[in-house]
Amino acid sequence: MKNIDLAGMATSNLKRRKSRTLLTIMGIVIGTISIVLMVALGLGMKETFSQQLDQVGSINIIEVSKSEDSTASTRLAEQTDNKLKDIDIEYFKGLEGVEAVSPVLQTNIKLVSGKYEMSASLIGLEPDKMNAFSFDIDTGRLLTDDDENVLLLGGKLPSSFTEAVESNTRGSAPKNNARGFGFGGMKPTEEEETLNVDVFNDRISMTLDTKYSPQKGTTQTQYNIYRVNAIGVLADGDMTRDRNAYMNIHALEQLLEDYSEADGTTLEDGYDKAYVKVYDLDYCDPIESLLEQQGYETTSYASFVETLQSTTDMLQVALGAIGAIALLVAGIGITNTMIMAIHERKREIGVMKVIGATLMDIRNLFLLEAAIIGFFGGAIGILLSVLASQLLSSSGFSQMAMGGGGGKGMSPLSAFSFSIPSWLIIIGLIFTTLIGIISGYIPARKAMKSSALEAIKTE
Amino acid sequence: MENIIEVKKLKKVYSMGKEEVYALKGIDLTIKKGEFCSLLGKSGSGKSTLLNMMAGLEKPTEGSVIIDGKPIESLNENAVTRIRKHYIGFIFQSYNLLPSHTALENVMLPLIFNDMPKKQRIEKGKEILSAVGLGDRYYHKPNQMSGGQQQRVSIARAFVNNPSIIFADEPTGNLDSKTENEIMDLIVKMKQTYDQTIVMVTHDEETSKHADRIITIKDGFIEDIQYSGGKKNENKD
Ligand SMILES: Nc1ncnc2c1ncn2[C@@H]1O[C@H](COP(=O)(O)OP(=O)(O)OP(=O)(O)O)[C@@H](O)[C@H]1O
Ligand SMILES: [Mg+2]
What we know:
The structure holds 2 protein chains of 2 kinds.
Chain A: H1 3-16, H2 18-55, E1 61-66, H3 86-93, E2 98-113, E3 116-125, E4 137-140, E5 150-153, E6 162-163, H4 188-193, E7 204-207, E8 225-234, E9 244-248, H5 249-263, E10 273-278, H6 281-293, E11 296-300, H7 302-344, H8 346-354, H9 359-394, H10 397-401, H11 422-449, H12 452-457
Helix pairs in contact in A: 1-9, 2-7, 2-9, 2-11, 7-8, 7-9, 7-11, 9-11
Chain B: E1 3-16, E2 19-32, E3 36-41, H1 47-54, E4 62-67, E5 70-71, H2 77-87, E6 88-91, H3 103-113, H4 118-131, H5 147-160, E7 165-169, H6 177-194, E8 197-202, H7 205-208, E9 213-218, E10 221-227, E11 231-234
Parallel strand pairs in B: 3-8, 3-9, 6-7, 7-8
Antiparallel strand pairs in B: 1-2, 1-4, 4-5, 9-10, 10-11
């Protein structure tokens, strides 16, 4: 029997039982839609997460500090304070897999410009290491060794100046400053146009006294107030850097000394922590555990990334499994339909066998019918999935799901985006066709083995 | 003339639980190419069983059936279908047309299994339908035709492939006597036109007389072989 005749016969058989064929196809359609949308949703989430992670330039960076619990310290146990020394920094530099190390000084600051103010973290770094730590500049430039009282601002700082609140309570934070972490502005576009402070041109004062309030004047603090300039703003979107200001570590050291002097304390020698950049994410784990054994405390985003990845993986598997169950049920539907068809067509099968159909012809005919159901179910299902995903994206479903937040933030809900890559379409079609063939296999064998004699004998 | 079918010591036992039914108890029979044979006998005598075994639809318990030199009882089902495809046409008592197919489609079915291209198939199908007198019924479905017309379609289907042998099990069993005569005349005419071997089962003596040779079956044995034209032979082989 020729393939073209086989195909013609199979399609005409399916057409003859239109409603049943359509119902069976519908089962596959539903199964396909659920599996495709589930997988697409999983892929979309993964994509969104990895996009957001890509924006985190500090992904390969381990933050190292001395352990609070000094008894756990085995290395350099004779040291008494909580600061890292140059000898520690040198030790980190010598570890395998380490690309760059910078000592870090860290303090809280208040920035004031006119009636606007803002609190931030000020981090002192070695300027020549900034490239290695992949600081991503948006406007201006990175720090250089000659820089003194100039700041490199995190991506969200320029828009974070808010009007100081007239307040009697000491040290109350400006209320707007309590804005959600990482969700971006409520009205991002409007705000950008009317920034309260032009960080490059407006006069900015900085103090290490976080209780300082401009309304009460300089008399309120015995600490120095510095005139500072911004020389650059980092690209927005890195949640680990958006709200920090950066400075040459040597300049910051000087500020801290002045502060201690004014405070009447002596500044301990050393660094608050160190940034250790490794060549590859894979180095994070071993280096971290080594350092922890040596009595250091470490934090990195590697572990965070791993959890995130395994979470999305699991989510995808779970979503895929739901779709797979739907498809399995649909496959059983095909088997059921084909078995019914064979019962009905027993006589027809018998007659065909007697007048010259080979066993292969019979088997192929039924397999093909099942495969056609699978294929068309898959094709329609995929088509509808693509339509649905476009509809969901264009109708602003994902925006809605994000609760109106701006697109740039680290919102986990922005993961409600679907991506249906072409490989998913092709795999989907192959898969549903295969499901058809597998589901049709038992019925086809049944048809092949059914006795021609029995069939033609029965009236 | 060469022997197209040879049946040797053919036995068939159906076992139904403990009970055993001896349908055929040892049949020896030779049918020559171009011969028109009828198997005559009462109901339950084993005619259909013999015919089905000659057509390879059933396996004998003992003995062998040789079609054109090939012993088919030892072949697997696939090989037997292939032999049927090339050598054998079938006419059933109850027509057994596919109800969803038109007359023409039914007739073309054996040609599909023989890989004939569509154009040729249609040509051949129409030709043979015209030959059985249904030139104006190509596109009728079985339920739009009378019993006699359906049997004509069935005959056309059996002959279309130009097989060596045509088996017919009570081809006129469902028809009235006038139609029966028409159908028998048609079978004889077709046989002469296409020069086929025909083996026909019937329980009706009159019908059996259309054949060149009448083989009477009784209780699983050949009781009598008669040549039409008055010749009579005692069945000893
Ligand atoms: N599948 C079967 N199982 C058991 N017994 C069977 C089977 N087929 C036929 N028989 C028995 O074999 C015997 C011969 O049956 P067969 O069908 O050959 O008779 P027949 O001569 O064709 O009769 P009829 O003229 O009524 O068609 C009968 O006794 C029947 O009961
Ligand atoms: Mg019978």
